[in-house]
Amino acid sequence: MKTIKPLREKKNTAILLIHCPDRQGILATVTEFLNNNRGNIIYLDQHVDREEHIFYMRVEWELEYFAIPRNKIGEYFNTLIGQPLKMTWKLDFSEEVPRMALFVSKMPHCLFDILARYTAGEWDVEIPLIISNHELLKPVAERFGVEFFHIPVNKDNKEEQESRELELLKKYDIDFIVLARYMQILSDSFVQQYPNRIINIHHSFLPAFAGAKPYHAAHDRGVKIIGATSHYVTSRLDGGPIIEQDVTRCSHFDTVQNLIRKGRDLEKIVLSQAVYKHLQRKILVYNNRTVVFN
Amino acid sequence: MKTIKPLREKKNTAILLIHCPDRQGILATVTEFLNNNRGNIIYLDQHVDREEHIFYMRVEWELEYFAIPRNKIGEYFNTLIGQPLKMTWKLDFSEEVPRMALFVSKMPHCLFDILARYTAGEWDVEIPLIISNHELLKPVAERFGVEFFHIPVNKDNKEEQESRELELLKKYDIDFIVLARYMQILSDSFVQQYPNRIINIHHSFLPAFAGAKPYHAAHDRGVKIIGATSHYVTSRLDGGPIIEQDVTRCSHFDTVQNLIRKGRDLEKIVLSQAVYKHLQRKILVYNNRTVVFN
Amino acid sequence: MKTIKPLREKKNTAILLIHCPDRQGILATVTEFLNNNRGNIIYLDQHVDREEHIFYMRVEWELEYFAIPRNKIGEYFNTLIGQPLKMTWKLDFSEEVPRMALFVSKMPHCLFDILARYTAGEWDVEIPLIISNHELLKPVAERFGVEFFHIPVNKDNKEEQESRELELLKKYDIDFIVLARYMQILSDSFVQQYPNRIINIHHSFLPAFAGAKPYHAAHDRGVKIIGATSHYVTSRLDGGPIIEQDVTRCSHFDTVQNLIRKGRDLEKIVLSQAVYKHLQRKILVYNNRTVVFN
Amino acid sequence: MKTIKPLREKKNTAILLIHCPDRQGILATVTEFLNNNRGNIIYLDQHVDREEHIFYMRVEWELEYFAIPRNKIGEYFNTLIGQPLKMTWKLDFSEEVPRMALFVSKMPHCLFDILARYTAGEWDVEIPLIISNHELLKPVAERFGVEFFHIPVNKDNKEEQESRELELLKKYDIDFIVLARYMQILSDSFVQQYPNRIINIHHSFLPAFAGAKPYHAAHDRGVKIIGATSHYVTSRLDGGPIIEQDVTRCSHFDTVQNLIRKGRDLEKIVLSQAVYKHLQRKILVYNNRTVVFN
Fold this sequence. Notes:
The structure is a homotetramer. Chain A is α/β, with parallel strands linked by helices.
């Protein structure tokens, strides 16, 4: 299905995400660099972690009158500012639409939510393929016009199947992966190919109830609130940097089935909020934590 | 698209919703009636409004061994209990799947959310048709395999077009209507055909910002929280009995566009929660307010 | 300080909390017993756990015209209903104001919140004494006119000091204990004297971050929401039945000090809500979980 | 009662709040001014309203090595930056502890909450006096060692009594006023003496239920969520710039009395959060809206 409404007209901008050791004058240095070269800043936010002395910044500016040619911005910035100030930085352009792969298993709620936003033009993203270890959701992919690859995984074929997946991801030029209730654990070597570029949704308020069957565990413990957590995937199971969390109330009235039902709404919204922030290039990761700009 | 997973096996049950003047012994009378006739109660909740002296109750029981034939239950109950206790009551059977009509305009987020739940088998409902005053969302309806009727409405043709709509609703044997961001005001005579059977979503925390452009109004007022409200439609604009509300935080950072974006997620979840409660026959209306059972 | 405003005029009522194996007719049996003896029911709520087949109920009725003398109600109820239906039940009278002991250490926020409610007449309770392992909060106790006992505890004197505490609790005829950020772990033998009658506040969203320094742990993990949990104390550290939980948002912006500051407000409100429910006799405990009636 | 624990050691800092028409380079100009004069920045946040083209900023820096003498900072800043950039700005020093007056009537919950924080050393504030139109809460003031003035107000004596209040506020050198459920409407001429320096708590989710008896109105309307709103007082009743809002769920179960009870906790927390932000000098007002920095 084609996008049902056109995306809003976008400005042609550059986005810079920075972190570096804090010191006087970084903010002035970066904003002057942009101002002096006629880069009209349309977004600027910064944060200083005053315990760890780290400076974080996101700045976005219009390219129209910017004096430095687009393909030279990175080089100039690095030479003049990035290297001298020991910055870790990433430069993106709003014109380059990120390409997302979706991994799913049998549960459709997150998949539907993402494809609905995609189709409705809520997000600036391309979703060229869906990979699943089950065939169940193939009809959903077809109706939304997204290619679907059924790649069953078990203990014995995991390495081989992950190789196939990686090939597909390369072939389709994928920038980042969203695990939309994909019930498989990715190998470390797979994860290392996409550092801070695999977003998972865990169906609990992490670090409570990491691992399998969190709603059953929540019911057993008799909690009064359940949650969902989206995070970047690292080699630590359910231990990667948290992007977004949300919760909802429950009570003695709620069976495990009720918790699962209520949780579905949490999961899909929390996952989509994390994907949105990622697409907006508003997330910085440091020390297994995130800075998520407004 | 067919439902992608089968509904859970349902028990064959009867559901009774009651309200009446409060007096001693109602609860005992009703439960004895069911127990004595071998109706295994699987849900019972009741509420007494001790200011207005009204008794509210929802009870659900299995029909398998129930002594009274299904088509006689209403008559027996009314004669033995309903009339003597001056009850307003409604009897439903879990086997009778309610039939919903969807009214939409141009915004797809609530439509997608409902069709996704429908397709995923989250809800026990039939959705045979979608009516819209615009053609924009026709492709969405088609992909989900639901009939779509384009019925443009303006000041001059409203009466005539509502007549067409009412015919369709009758033809398709519709039980209740969901206005999924349908941007038209229904006439009183239309509304009176479906009392407490038209569910609307208003994109504000009612009674704040009733009427048009609530996100603009919220932005102007500088609120720190925005909301969404689902309610039954009555002749009072945005004044019907409230079923569900939810809110999310905002700040000086949020432009009107941001509020609209955040609001979409609220709207679709709040509307779907209201529809779910309606489908569960868990809502009672009295004095323009709702009792919504757990 | 005397109560600054008089309590609302209270009705003279009896309150029955029940749980028992579920079977047909319990609700009818209990309500008929009360109706037949002219007990005007002013509150009734019940819950059936249909997985574990347990029936839970809270019922409150006026004693004014009740046919059974107050001191015989328990005996009659047990003989006629409790024993035959294998009920665990507890009978209370609204006239009997519960007596609470407060245990504190150095942090005053929960103490102030409780004493403010007490003084303002928000709660129907007597607080004859405060016990602390530090002297710091003695002036607070004095200003509110509550006796304060300084009982320092260390590894070597714990048994002896707990004996002193138990003596005081008996002397002052204490019904239940509230640990208002009391930073000591009570011994098992102490806890067993007050089963489901010691309420603690833990400064995290349990089961996440049990044990010491939860705000530091939350900060390290980079969570986006922090919480507080009130629970009955059992021999399992931070593992007793949860009564109430609440959460608040945090972000990369929040230092540990900020989390502690935000957490204080959560802690005092969550603890006081749990105490209120306990005072209302609205909590039932079964299988290390609570049923908390509305 | 003296503060029961010493305040954390404070750094000696200057705080600048700025708003002005947006243009390139403001941020660089301000930060360079501070850096060049050896002002170590410990907080910086800024916001640009890109619709109204207004730049907002809060910056805080250490005075220890700052090159400009404290009593000249304002003059230098204004000459070199403020005037040229058409800034509205305000300079504060962390050493200058703000002086707050409390206005109360009969309800003690907000009063207790504020006095508890004051006594506990949570806030950097002096509270030299409490003014009330009733005598009821005098004992509370006395126990906390704060002077209490009983100034009854009615239609006939309002002007005269407000004059007495204004005299007291001047005598006690009051910087700002907190209306802690003070049930009187201040005259316009009074309000104009303390622009954006009178903080009120309204017991509803404004703009819903402005005016008297909001909990009764909320109950009548059958809302599912109630709220509280703190705002600066202007000549528009309940219409001033909103500082903070919060909400809690309610249901058909809740009587007006229950709403009032639940609302008390909201009111006191929301009011105290607003006061905290004001004390932190983190609030900017523009166009009847607030920018509240983190």
